[in-house]
Amino acid sequence: MKPRMIVTATLLATVAAVFLLVAVQTLHMRTLGGERAQPVSAAEQKQELSDENLVDVLSSMHLTTPIAKVEWKQSILKLDLKVTGTKTSYTEIYDNMATVAELGFHSLDNVEQILLRIMAEDEWLHKRHLLLAADIRRNEWPTDAIDTLRNWKSPVISGEIKEWFHIMETDLWKKQFELLNEG
Predict the structure, then answer these.
(1) What is the DSSP letter of 141?
(2) What is the DSSP string of 8-77?
(3) Most exposed residue of 85, 90, 95, 150, measured as fewest CB within 10 angstroms of its CB?
(4) What's the angle, vertex CA 30, arms to CA 29 and CA 31, rounded to 5?
């Protein structure tokens, strides 16, 4: 073999080996997810709420009272939950409120405020009446506040819970739940 052919063959073999290594590395990166791959023990990533994923995120909540209205603007989530009839208990409502707060502040990064209204809907007249309203703001309550709300066993909401979540009850709430449980 001539020296020129040996050099050419060696050069071609080297170039082929480089291309093969690059192809194997690219395949390896695609298979494992490349830089996006995270260890199994990594903490769950919080997601951001947007107009595109609003329905998917809210439908992931398991609420016993249906969502009547929703609005997402900048960092404020406005949500109306609809109570129909007299079958819904105040403990269900507290649990739903806690679920909404938990989603908004533990699972989502960009929610700073939740304006939550609990509405009663008159099935005969199709009119809506406000029962309870909450203005829940990120970092304005202790870490156990959501669990306290979820486990509250009285229709009369404590002063602390009202203060933490800026809760306002209407006379209709008092009539439906507080006075009903007194007698």
Answers:
(1) S
(2) HHHHHHHHHHHHHHHHHHHHHHHHHTGGG---TTSPPPPB---TTTHHHHHHTS--SS-EEEEEEETTEE
(3) 85
(4) 95
CB atoms inside a 10 Å sphere around CB 32: 10
In single-letter form, the type of residue at position 52 comes to: E
Long-range contacts of range 57-65, CB-CB < 8 Å, 24 or more positions apart? 57/103, 57/107, 57/108, 58/103, 60/103, 61/99, 61/100, 61/103, 62/99, 63/96, 63/99, 63/100, 64/88, 64/92, 64/95, 64/96, 65/92, 65/93, 65/96, 65/118
Q: How many CB atoms lie within 10 A of CB 58?
A: 17
Cα distance between residue 114 and residue 48, in whole Å: 14
* Residue at token pair 């170039």: 15
Query: What does DSSP assign to residue 166?
Result: T
- The owner of tokens 């769950």 is 44
Tens of pLDDT, residues 103-145:
999 999 999 999 999 999 877 777 889 999 999 999 999 999 9
The tens digit of pLDDT for each residue in 63-96 reads: 999 999 999 999 999 999 998 777 889 999 999 9
Q: What is the pTM of this model?
A: 0.72
